[in-house]
Amino acid sequence: MTPAARTAPAPFGRALCAMITPFTATGTLDTDGARLLADRLVSAGCDGLVLSGTTGESPTTSDAEKAELVAAVREAVGDRASIVAGVGTSDTRHTVRLARDAEKAGADGVLVVSPYYSRPPQDALEAHFREVADASALPVMLYDIPGRTGTRIEPDTMLRLAGHPRIVAVKDCSYDFLGAQKVLARTDLAYYAGCEEHHLALYAVGGAGYVSTVANVIPAHLRAVLDAFDAGDTAGAAVRQHRVMELVESMMASGLPGTVTAKALLGGLGLPAGPVRAPLRPAGRKTTDGLRAACERLVSGPHS
Predict the structure, then answer these.
(1) Which of 1, 112, 241, 258 has its CA 20 to 30 A from that of 90?
(2) With contact defined as beta carbons under 8 Å apart, do 172 and 180 qualify?
(3) Biggest alpha carbon distance in the chain?
(4) Catalytic (active site) residue 171
(5) Does residue 143 carry a catalytic annotation?
(6) pLDDT given for residue 12 in this prediction
């Protein structure tokens, strides 16, 4: 088939991993592990790495650890992949400070989540994002995940924010496919699927790609979905997307955060992960065994 032409903007690449933050057995930041994991992910097809997001346990890492993580991963991947640093907090001044720290540490962009708990109205939310975007020279990816923050970035707010020269992308966890397409049709914002089951669907209507927790474990399998679609093999892309769904469901719909399930699998594979930080707790033996079985079925099956 003739390859499909892609015109959608993808400022940070197409296949992005929401990377876990490796810790040592005693719970300190494992920069050596972060370098090893980052190199593995990029070598397996990740165009970009999102650090200190939800999967990266940003609420329980310090400002200094966040900057140290960016510097370590930058050293490991060089210019082979983009680095997007999560800087969102519930405090605008703190978020501004983290954005500037990320720029100094070598990030290529920042991920900014809606301020949580305070649930600002849309005009205050817009002002928050503009202030953060004005604080550094880095491009901004907005993070719309109302299930965690309690506040939606409404489509009309997205349309206004799209006019800011440094607000270039959205990580979409809104579960509002209609709203996402409304913004896609009327702006140049790059939309990245933040929900694993939406990777192919959003890509097919002009999305830029994905930011994936599951990519910590199967980066090449997820990249293959986009590659098949770009090659014009839309049926093959759908088959590949369907094949990863068992593992996606096991990791993301088991009642445990994706951070917990990703670290359980990575640890079982002998890859850098370490413990999660409280209040999160590690996966139990039964859950871990089920995750490993789902992963083994995927890896040993066709198109592996």
Answers:
(1) 258
(2) yes
(3) 53
(4) yes
(5) yes
(6) 98
